[in-house]
Specification:
Number of strands: 0
CATH class of the largest domain: Mainly Alpha
Number of helices: 19
Order of helices and strands: HHHHHHHHHHHHHHHHHHH
CATH superfamily of the largest domain: MFS general substrate transporter like domains
Largest sheet: none
CATH architecture of the largest domain: Up-down Bundle
Shape: globular
Length: 430
């Protein structure tokens, strides 16, 4: 591809998205650039503090449990308080709880604060996704979600590399740097992001049904997507749960695992944007079915890997599934969510991934200990097949994109969140 073609492709990728999206994207990138604690928490507790691996696992589980709880809580806050207040509360709370965790020495206090960190850090996710759906046009959402996912992985790739060097200098410095960068995200939100929550009209206030968690649970098609996202999440979790255990049992070193799993981050950063350009306007049903099969059978191929290069090839297969699945599935969640219930719907979707993060370590450990790693990889193929069938059934006769909410009078909303005319919107970029 010529330099001119590359420039044109890059321009088309970022064009047409409002300024507010780019400030939200910047906040996401800064947040992930500072995500040090999750990377070195186990090493910090076992090497620096001298606690057992079991205790480190307990702290990780409590951190995950906090995320499960706050997924729903953050969704409710997003709909009731608004996107901007929820982001400010979540990010400020995360900054202070992470800093506090660095100064804790008592094991009970460490566990309790880790639970609070999990709650605070996960509460912002429904608000981010809902705000993105509010400010980006329906036809651009897959591209916007893909760019946001790219920022998450780029930030994580940098932060995970930097975490090792920071930990050698001072674990406390890592906690404080993450707290500072999270606080910087809150400042960006405060200064640059106006509230984007759609305004309810008088008719909607008078006759519209209030969207509650019960509404979400009764939405059969959406809850089916949540269940399938849980299955997919359990599969993808094996990259950080089952794969290192299986490689260690087969005699490979941690460095070997590091080389193999690094392929995941490199491919996402390199391919997320061009692949999204290819899939952006294609049938989401077919994309989700293909991604589920690639995920399940990509991990199944691990059973036949006998070298680091072979493991890296299997990582390539399921990473492609991740690149296709992430923006497509997030776009479907928005498409199935009512405008005035996006926070709760996004919260339920986020919870499926949080629960998977708790279930995956337990299930993979039991399978490997009692039956061997080959059974784990075989089950990944089974789960991927079930998910593919589920996507094919649920995505039939997918409803069209819901009409946007009736806009409020021109003088009742900040100018930054008023819809731009199509020709003007296409000229705005970050």
């Amino acid at each position: 591809m010529s330099p001119a073609s590359l420039r044109r492709a890059a321009r088309e990728t970022v064009s047409g998205l409002p300024r507010e999206f780019w400030w939200l994207w910047t906040s996401t990138l800064v947040n992930r650039l500072g995500a040090f604690v999750a990377t070195f928490m186990a090493l910090y507790l076992t090497l620096d503090r001298g606690y057992s691996a079991s205790y480190a696992g307990l702290v990780a589980a409590l951190h995950g449990l906090g995320g499960v709880i706050s997924s729903l809580g953050g969704g409710v806050m997003t709909d009731r308080l608004g996107r901007r207040p929820t982001l400010l509360i979540a990010q400020t709370s995360t900054a202070f709880s992470v800093a506090l965790l660095g100064f804790m020495h008592d094991p009970v206090a460490i566990a309790a604060v880790a639970f609070l960190v999990g709650m605070a850090s996960n509460a912002s996710r429904p608000a981010v996704q809902a705000m993105m759906a509010d400010i980006v046009r329906p036809e651009d959402r897959v591209r916007a979600f893909s760019l946001n996912y790219w920022a998450i992985n780029l930030g994580f790739a940098v932060s995970s590399t930097a975490a090792g060097f920071i930990a050698e200098f001072s674990y406390l410095a890592g906690f404080l740097i993450e707290a500072g960068m999270t606080l910087a995200c809150a400042i960006v939100v405060f200064l640059k992001l106006p509230e984007s929550k759609p305004v309810r009209t008088a008719a909607e206030e008078a006759g519209g049904e209030e969207v509650g968690l019960g509404t979400v649970l009764r939405d059969g098609r959406f809850m089916g997507v949540v269940g399938l996202s849980f299955l997919i999440a359990v599969i993808f979790q094996q990259g950080s749960v089952g794969l290192p255990v299986a490689m260690g049992a087969a005699g490979f070193t941690p460095a070997d695992y590091g080389l193999a799993i690094a392929v995941n981050g490199v491919l996402i950063v390199a391919l997320q944007i061009p692949v999204t350009r290819f899939i952006e306007h294609r049938d989401p049903q077919r994309l989700l079915v293909i991604s589920a099969l690639l995920a399940g059978y990509g991990f199944a191929l691990t059973a036949f890997a006998g070298s680091v290069a072979a493991f890296a090839l299997t990582v390539c297969v399921w990473t492609l599934a991740e690149i296709v699945n992430a923006p497509t599935q997030t776009g479907i969640v928005v498409r199935l969510s009512p405008v005035h219930g996006r926070g709760r719907y996004q919260g339920m979707y986020t919870m499926s991934w949080s629960v998977a993060a708790l279930v995956a370590p337990l299930s993979s450990g039991l399978l490997i200990d009692h039956f061997g790693a080959e059974w784990l990889w075989g089950m990944c193929a089974v789960v991927g097949t079930v998910a593919a069938i589920g996507y094919w059934l649920l995505m039939r006769s997918l409803p069209t994109e819901p009409a946007p909410a009736e806009p409020a009078p021109a003088d009742s909303r900040p100018a930054a969140v008023r819809p731009l005319p199509r020709d003007e919107a296409e000229t705005v970029s970050g």
